[in-house]
Amino acid sequence: xxxxxxxxxxTTFLVLGVLLFGGFVAVFDGFIVRQSRLEQxxxxxxxxxxxxxxxxxxxxxxxxDGNSYMPYVRYAYEVDGVEFESSRYAFGEHLxxxxxxxxxxxxxxxxxxxxxxxxxxxxxxSAVLNVDGHARPRFVLVFLIPFHCLPLWLLAxxxxxxxxxxxxxxxxxxxxxxxxxxxxxxxxxxxxxxLFLAFAGILGFIGTFVLALGVEFPGADELAIPAxxxxxxxxxxxxxxxxxxxxxxxxxxxxxxxxxxxxxxxxGERTPLPPSPSLxxxxxxxxxxxxxxxxxxxxxxxxxxxxxxxxxxxFRGPESDGAALLEVLRDRLxxxxx
Length: 338
Prior knowledge:
Helix content: 40-55%
Order of helices and strands: HEEEHEEHHHEEHHEEEEEEH
Number of helices: 8
Number of domains: 3
């Protein structure tokens, strides 16, 4: 098992990495918030001025991430007898790469059509055509879900559910009840917040690809809001299902220290403990690794008088977890006073 200073050092670097990654995501969020504020300012303080569309077409731009499509709508307007022209359709319009959106905007604003634009009274060259928020791509909301959930999940995994004072990491993971008469070990699935973030991040990742495959058909961007709602509902449902499964008796070992017996699963037949229990652990490697640690299938076993073994508890974890939880069980039995 890694020493406490080593774990603390890894945790510190992980937290710094999470904060750095979260900072980049926050910068992107800042652009979206800024766009919303600019739209609100234009609606509240900019003047409404009639204008005429003089050019209207879809602009196709090539980039490292593929094609992006933008509506180019140029309009002319007049303020105090002075003529001006502008081609700003909306604040943050560079976020769009949806061809159907660009085509729809161009179709709604043909050359020669009359429109109403917002003009900054302090800078008459500054105008904008759309300030209703519909120019902001809703698809981005789904796209950003995994990027938000990943750092939040890591922080939740690190800090939530492990604040039971005086308990080691292994105790915080497996010891559900520890009283004078009872010890209950369980396979804890994780904090509900961490579970929800994990489900939401995975579903957001899937939803991004599902919507991305359909960006060419009209109305794909409108599916983002229903998809966002579906992701939240499914993440809550998944969290509830996992939490319910975690409460099943098959996941619990109940040691009755008063009657000196145990049951695994907790609702199964009780087995008496010998006066001086001989406990051990058997571990077998799996094909799974987490943070470069191979996950093992552990069994806490009780040796009976005939030399056989009775399984007391099964769980998965790093190789060191088997011996660590065995020591917790031994210490608790020794301190029971029997």
